[in-house]
């Protein structure tokens, strides 16, 4: 799958965003190592702590389908800035894919690519739990 196709899938699901409070629509598409793709959009809640990011929604869909191994994720918003995962989503993604490639896109279709490790340096992971 090409970068553009993955970003296109994230763009399509962004239309389903439920974001009445921030009006900041986000879509995500996560590609599993076997080539399957799961999508998610952000889902806001008036109790802000119950809000779900697009990346978390995509991971939840994938894990619910039995997937645990991810290759890359594309994230896009309607804004003029590149859309990066928040800190909580970086940690969630790290749980499953420390070597994940993150494609961060903006509304005009331009995107940049980073490794998750560069976005979450010195991360805390399950390997730390093995040392107990």
Can you give a write-up of this model?
With 132 residues, the chain is an alpha+beta fold. Helices cover 31% and strands 23% of the residues. The protein has five helices and five strands; from the N terminus they run H-E-E-H-E-H-E-E-H-H. A five-stranded mixed sheet has the order 2-1-3-4-5. Strand 4 and strand 5 (111-115) form a beta hairpin. The chain is globular, with a radius of gyration of 14 Å. It starts with a helix and ends with a helix. The model has no long low-confidence stretch (mean pLDDT 96).
**Class by alpha and beta content:** alpha+beta
Give the beta-strand count: 5
- Give, in spatial order, the strands making up the sheet with the most strands: 2-1-3-4-5
Count the helices. How many? 5
Question: Rg to the nearest angstrom?
Answer: 14 Å
User: How would you sum up the major sheet?
Assistant: 5 strands, mixed
Distance between the termini: 40 Å
């Amino acid at each position: 799958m090409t970068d553009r196709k993955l970003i296109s899938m994230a763009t399509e699901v962004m239309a389903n965003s439920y974001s009445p409070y921030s009006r900041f629509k986000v879509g995500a598409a996560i590609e599993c190592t076997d080539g399957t793709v799961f999508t998610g959009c952000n889902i806001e809640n008036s109790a802000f702590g119950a809000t779900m990011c697009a990346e978390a929604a995509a991971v939840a869909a994938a894990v619910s389908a039995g997937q645990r191994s991810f290759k890359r994720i594309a994230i896009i918003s309607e804004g003029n800035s590149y859309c990066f995962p928040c800190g909580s989503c970086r940690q969630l993604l790290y749980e499953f894919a420390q070597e994940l490639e993150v494609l961060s896109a903006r509304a005009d279709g331009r995107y940049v690519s980073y490794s998750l490790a560069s976005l979450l340096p010195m991360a805390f992971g399950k390997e730390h739990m093995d040392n107990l």
